[in-house]
């Protein structure tokens, strides 16, 4: 497990490109028949990736729960949201199996002991992207297809940000302890996400980008509004965004991204908006 510690905005101003990437960029999540995990001390959020090919892969493969989390099993005091961004696959959670197609989601509650991942076809394996947050109460493990998500159209072609926000793990869709997750799809020809930018002091966020065509990239914007920086992101990579940082992106083509949030406030519109003219 890769562990990332918290960074404050004063030190961030002096980071080089490589230091920014080492601190905030998450890559290499999808390795055949393995679990990859990045533990961020920003709200103690954990990002996982799993690509089962030849074998069924348990969530705790290669992870010592007591050493890494101080618990008997990973989800003893955690909840987790999982999206499939690859081929068809399935997830078994405490003996119950859920089939996930492309862009489908599974929320698994605190207290679930055993989670196992499988692909339907090893020639086109599933890719399970996951984010876990600490939880103090148990909710209901719930499967949500892309059709079940609450749709929220935003933006316009004129500003190159026409998109649909699909709210999955969200207070308007199902109850969780603190985790919120969703998937935003940009229309063809649109490249900007989350612009105008914002911050939210009461929660952090993690973006993962996929559906980026080969040879293209996304420039993820971060930092304080008056001290912005960027990270060039490739297909399947994620970025950790502390509460003090904006989180927006512009691609060299249209793409899709999954947002995950953890913190005190789950209200979607709890944002501190920033005028484009005020960005530096």
Radius of gyration: 18 Å
Structural class label: mainly beta
**SSE string, helices as H and strands as E:** EHHEEEEHEEEEEEEEEEEEEEEEEEE
Q: What is the 3D shape? A: globular
Find the count of extended strands (DSSP E, 2+ residues): 24
Mean pLDDT: 96
Helical segment tally? 3
Q: What is the CATH-assigned architecture?
A: Sandwich
Q: Helicity range of the residues?
A: under 10%
Please report the distance between the alpha carbons of the first and last residues: 35 Å
Number of domains: 1
**Spatial arrangement of strands, main beta sheet:** 1-3-4-11-6-9-12
CATH superfamily: Jelly Rolls
β-strand percent reads 35-45%
In the CATH scheme, the class would be Mainly Beta
- Biggest sheet statistics: 7 strands, mixed
Runs in which pLDDT lies below 50 for 5 or more consecutive residues are: none
The CATH topology label is: Jelly Rolls
